[in-house]
Here is the input.
Amino acid sequence: MSPEDLAPTEEKPSLHLGCGKQMWQGFLNVDSAPLPGVDVVWDLNDRPWPFASGAWALVVANHVIEHLDDLGATMRELHRILAPDGIAQVRVPHVAGWGAWNNPTHRHYFTRETLRYFEKGHHYSYAVEAGFSSVTCTNVFGLGKSARLNWLVNPLLNTNLYDQVLWKIIPCAEVKATLVK
Here is the structure.
């Protein structure tokens, strides 16, 4: 497959990277495992990805990029396949959370600041060949169905005080990011 092979269709206008067993309607579901319902079996460490450049308005990657070898190359591929003003919704485990460390296949660890390096104008964007016009990241406590406690705790998790001190005391579960091309 060449990088131009797979483009959005009317039935599947969005891309779901690393879908695992979660197949989503309206998405081209991609995973490295040939699970039932996976539309495209592809190892995302194999670049370029087989998706059309500048074609995808929405790409979702939930708990997948922490497993990939080269974070910079992954983010460049994500940027390449997004349409102008396209959105990538990414979730990764927070470095302070148990989920970051329990999986032996994780290769990267994230804070609320990590993915911001890939935004144009970030003071270290030159080091990672950034290109996203906007990167918004929030820490998520992740207490499952405890919406009230999440509502109380999540605002505290998105402060510099949390990032510098409290993450060692109150570990959050994940970082949720929205990246705009």
User: Anything to note?
Assistant: Residues 14-140+174-180 form a domain with the Rossmann fold fold (CATH 3.40.50.150).
